[in-house]
Amino acid sequence: APGTKTLTSDVATVDISNADKGYIMINYTGTSPKVKMQLVTPADVTYTYTLHKGNYETFNLTDGNGRYHVTVFENSHDDLYSTALSEDFDAQITDAFSPFLYPNQYVNFNASCKTVDMGRQLAKPCSSDLEVVTNVYDYCIGNITYDEDKAKNVKSGYLPDVDEILDSKKGICFDYAAVMATMLRTQNIPTRLEVGYVSSAYHAWVSVYLKDIGWVNGIIEFDGKDWELMDPTLAASKSEKQLKSFIGDGSVYRTKFV
Asked: Is the pTM for the entire model greater than 0.85?
């Protein structure tokens, strides 16, 4: 957050210096214990996030070029919020893939993370991005088990800690997706963390961009001829027969947010 271009109020700073790289950073310095940020994209999609006091947090501009609107809301009482900052800004992103390569609030990592190092180890013997995706996929479904208790009790605003998930070897769909996105993004493979519905279940998964193929929606299995949609949480918690029956041709996946 270099501060060369900022939108400010007395309690919040929105650093848009790197909007051309596909991200903004926000620092809330007020006293409200509950703070929300809304980002309205050029496609008129509204993303709502929880802000945490005292540190810059990163948010990616996943809708590409155009005019965005950012609003910071402070909780006044009960479920009522007041506006602390409300501004428009334009983004002209020089590399369309950059929003899907950087860390952000949902896929949070740095150079010292164990998860980044594990991604590097998994990628080292590979000769193609597809091999990297396969190794990362196999590692996650083989080493992380689905945490049923956490899924039942997770609170609104929960954010994955990718190293904690790697150490505990268990997590929910959001955790699987964040770990995989961390490993793939740090190997220069554009990766979208997507949130939406699989049939009637609220869910998170990842999509990757592979050279000569394009975006592959949902994590994948490749048998040398055909692609099959298969996300890491379902692959880790269901048998192959159950999985294919549940996923089918992918039409049960409905993306709400990227």
From this structure: yes
Q: Tell me which H or E stretch contains 124.
A: none
pLDDT of residue 252: 64
> Are 80 and 149 contacting, i.e. CB atoms less than 8 angstroms apart?
no
What pLDDT is attached to residue 14?
A: 98
At residue 241, what are phi and psi to the nearest 5 degrees?
-65, -45
pLDDT of residue 2: 96
Task: Quote the CA–CA distance of 86 and 103 in Å, as a whole number.
Answer: 24
Q: CA 84 to CA 74: how far, in whole Å?
A: 6
Distance CA 39, CA 60 (A): 10
The sign of the torsion formed by the CA atoms of 201, 190, 58, 14 equals: negative
Tens-place pLDDT, residues 108-165: 999 999 999 999 999 999 998 888 998 998 898 889 998 989 989 998 889 999 999 9
CB 139 within 8 A of CB 150: no
Q: What is the rounded end-to-end Cα distance, in angstroms, of the chain?
A: 23
Neighbours of 44 (CB within 10 A): 8
d(CA 240, CA 116): 29
Question: What pairing do the DSSP bridges indicate for beta strands 220-222 and 57-60?
Answer: unpaired
Cβ–Cβ < 8 Å for 151, 172: yes
Tokens of 257: 């947010």
